[in-house]
Amino acid sequence: MIGFKVLTKHGLKGPFKKSSVLKAITGAMIPLKARLLDLETGRYLSAAELVGEQSDPPSTPFAQAQDKVDQADITSITDYIVPSDDSGELKLTDD
Q: Whose CB has fewer CB within 10 Å in the chain, the N or C terminal residue?
């Protein structure tokens, strides 16, 4: 599964499917300034950048069930997400 990892205060968490990350962003569980690592390209992007892309909906019952698991995992890390400062630099916090 190629997807995204979310940068948190405790490092990268994931991987999560793109559809799950998009649902978490649109559900305000992940802020638009959060940093995401695209596992396919190895590039960091902001959640706002990802929202600009179109997501394919899950096509099978298994994919829908996996999205629910991913969504639960994302919910458990939302207190630790590190927002981007738009400087282009990756920064980890030690709180």
A: C
- Surface-to-core class of residue 95, CB atoms within 10 Å of its CB (0-12 exposed, 13-18 middle, 19+ buried): exposed
Amino acid at 64: Q
The pLDDT of residue 64 = 57
Q: What is the rounded distance in angstroms from the CA atom of residue 41 to the CA atom of residue 65?
A: 26
The number of CA neighbours under 13 Å toward the Cβ of 86 is 4
Do 23 and 9 meet the contact criterion of CB atoms below 8 Å apart? no
For range 21-48, the mean pLDDT? 93
Mean pLDDT over 66-76 rounds to 64
